[in-house]
Amino acid sequence: MSDWLGPAEWQAVALSLRVALVATVLSLPFGVAVAWLLARRKFPGHALLNGLVHLPLILPPVVTGYLLLIAFGPQAALGGWLEAMGLGVAFRWTGAALAAAIMAFPLMVRAIRLSLEAVDPGLEDAAATLGASRWRVFWTITVPLMAPGILTGAILAFAKAMGEFGATITFVSNIPGETRTVPSAIYAFLQVPGGEASAWRLVIVSVVIAMGALLASELLARRVMQRIGGRDA
Amino acid sequence: MLEVAVRHSLGGFTLDAAFQAPGGVTCLFGRSGAGKTSIVRAVAGLLKAESARVTVDGKRLDTLPIHRRRIGYVFQEPRLFPHLDVAANLHYARSGMDAQPVIEMLGIGHLLERRPAALSGGEAQRVAIGRALLSNPRLLLLDEPLAALDEARKAEILPYLERVRDAAEVPILYVSHSVPEVARLATTLVALENGRVVRVGAAAALLSDPDVAPVIGIREAGAILEARVVRHHEDGLTELSGVGGALWLPRVAAVEGASVRVRIEAQDVMLSTHRPEGISALNVLPVEVSAIRDGQGPGVMVQLNAGGARLLARVTNRSAKAMGLADGWQGYAVVKTVSIASGNVGG
User: Fold this and answer.
1) How far apart are CA B279 and CA B336, in angstroms?
2) What DSSP designation does A149 have?
3) How far is A155 from A210, CA to CA, in rounded Å?
4) ipTM of the complex in this document
5) pLDDT over 70 for what percent of chain A?
């Protein structure tokens, strides 16, 4: 594939995969935690948290990107502190991952929350009466039963992270090799004469990856459902 | 020894119930909405009651978190974990107990590798009972474990519950609104109405108390007789002997020599001043009236002493007057053999 794709294109694909994977894996525990809070707990600020989580879905991506820049830019307090710790994200690929994670977060939380709401709390009660601590109940009952939702949430988030453009380009710009993901690369190729061929190749790669992810999630989800549904495979 | 005191208010409903019971099976009995399930949920810790005090053999449970209380809870629905097979469900509690005796007692050995979705309702509930027993509980809670099953499945599971009762060394708190179930299983009866305990006592005494009959429901009221199986006869009848005299029942599913409980519904008992002759009913017991309670309707509930055993009879007001029924009245109680359904006979 590296023969068919030019080095600049290949670089964009590899970077996008890395950004999307890191964004998905690192945000997953937070996604599960927030989904659990929203589905199972009542607390002051519940509506506020719900609104904050969903905000990136409704705001123009440029606005989200700009807000990130204000918070994490080198001049900002938080950004400057991270920079000093060697963990700066502005104009780096880690910043692209952060932007992608935030943009994908609502989709992830939604899918996980729906599956969590379908888990019968009566089963968790039953497990508790059998001597299981909350922690054990969560890992042996809740998580396995919501696994299809976690899977769907992760794949949706991955797909969204692969395609994120507006917030990314606003927050971390379009630096080849550092923050030029596939969508940014397509955009850049379309700005220069003779770049259509490269842009087309990246379009094909995007479609293949998206279709592959959807198929994989479909297969995995069917497997998990079979396991839970009790039909011996 | 089991001691429970629960107080909780929920909307307009106030639960304020306290009772003590010796070991064995304590049945919480009452209409739906009487607060039975709230009490067991509070005992387990699943309901955070305003105040709840629970002790089992002197050990306080209400101060412990749910998972440290060691309470085996069987719910109305089996609540088996759908992603685990039967064996994994049974071993979920990791008590280290030997599962084999429980598996044999409940007849679930052939189900171990199945998933819950592949079980029938009766099988699933037996597995749920086994799972609770294998958690090595201090106290067993059974919250209408038969309510979600049809009559045939109930009849299938009741004998298993009787075995559990006889094998369990722990007290059992059993919620029910089914009189036949209570009559077959209960050692102690706690009658509840609107969140309050109206009567507590030995099941046999309460079930034959005419004052309790309205709580039970006058159509379903009936005393329990303890009797021993003497012989199975070839014509399909079983001869039993109780303190009150011989009893003839349709074939009973117990071996000769076994002792059984027989519930005789008050409305199936007829009274006669003389020993009746030339009638089809096979059971005629000499009795003496020990208590009478007038109801609001056309009937009266009469408690009878049959040689030490108690019976309940429901007759019309008119007959009671005509026959001069009063404390100390002596006569005969007549019970049709076929009126005693097999569901009213338990081991």
Assistant:
1) 10
2) H
3) 10
4) 0.84
5) 96
Predicted pLDDT at A219: 85
| Lookup: tokens for B344 | 């009213």
pLDDT in tens, A134-154: 999 999 999 999 998 999 899
Q: Helices (DSSP H) in B36-142: which residue ranges? A: 36-44, 86-90, 100-106, 121-133
d(CA B74, CA B79): 8
Whether the predicted pLDDT of B305 surpasses 50: yes
Higher pLDDT pick, A54 / A90: A54
CA closest to B115 among chain A residues: A230
User: Across the A/B interface, how many CB contacts are shorter than 8 Å?
Assistant: 71
Is A123–B81 a contact, with Cβ atoms under 8 angstroms apart?
A: yes
DSSP states of A64-82: HHHHHHHHHSTTSHHHHHH
Which helix (H) or strand (E) segment is B188 a member of? strand B188-193
For residue A142, the distance in angstroms to the closest alpha carbon of chain B comes to 10
**Which among B46, B67, B83 is the nearest to A228, CB-wise?**
B83
pLDDT band at residue A231, thresholds of 50, 70 and 90? very low
Which segment of A27-36, B17-26, B126-135, B154-163 scores lowest on mean pLDDT?
Answer: B154-163
- Tell me B304's DSSP state: E
pLDDT in tens, B28-51: 998 888 899 999 999 999 999 999
Helices (H) and strands (E) in chain A, counts: 11, 0
Question: Which DSSP state fits A131?
Answer: T
Chosen from B43, B47, B92 to mutate, greatest number of chain A CBs within 10 A: B92
Q: Say how far apart CA A69 and CA A171 lie, in whole Å.
A: 5
Q: What is the pLDDT of residue A228?
A: 67
The pairing of strands B259-265 and B309-316 is unpaired
Q: Report residue B316 as tokens.
A: 């019309």
Task: State residue B316 phi and psi, 5-degree precision.
Answer: -75, 155
At residue B212, the pLDDT reads 86
Tell me the pTM: 0.84
Asked if residues B96 and B150 have their Cβ atoms less than 8 Å apart, the reply is: no
Query: How far apart are alpha carbons B115 and A227 in whole angstroms?
Result: 9
Say whether B77 and A127 touch across the interface (CB within 8 A): no
Which residue in B208, B152, B159 sits closest to B185, CA to CA? B159
Token pair belonging to B245:
């005299």
Rounded to whole angstroms, the Cα distance separating A151 from A148 reads 5
Q: Report which of B4, B80, B71, B69 is spatially closest to residue B35, judged by C-alpha positions.
A: B4
Q: What phi, psi does B305 have (nearest 5°)?
A: -105, 115
Other residues' Cβ atoms within 10 Å of the Cβ of residue B294: 11
